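Running this now, will post back.
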Amino acid sequence: MKKILFVFLLLSATTLFAQTEQKMGEDFLRSVQEKNFALLKPWLGKNAKTMQEKWNQVVENAHRNGFDVKAVKIKFVTAGEQVPNMPMKTIIAVYEYDGKEWDDLVLMITTGKQPKLVEIPLTSYMFKLDEGRRGKNRID
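Update: finished.
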């Protein structure tokens, strides 16, 4: 009985974390679409100013001529492993645009009950639709 309860609790926790990561990815996208950094407030820690500077670069990429950021839809969010010796991990929000899947929306988050956004890496690649990089973030 204890084993069954343990497995149930483990599965419940995994599902809860996956839903949290999905919500963070969706909130990040919505903040970019609406050019509203305040939508990320629940996900920000002490580094909000640094995150806003990086977020501004992502917004610039997403709102360039020829790219319709409002047409972007997140299909799913996948999490990487925890960074060794650090309480953070990568999440990748895979989105669909113009009939293709793109995996350039990468965020670093803390691990734990209330994940926080700690880094927005690769800002120069986000929403650039670089065919040469497509699929590489999921592989790496």
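The chain has one domain: 2-139. More later if anyone needs it.
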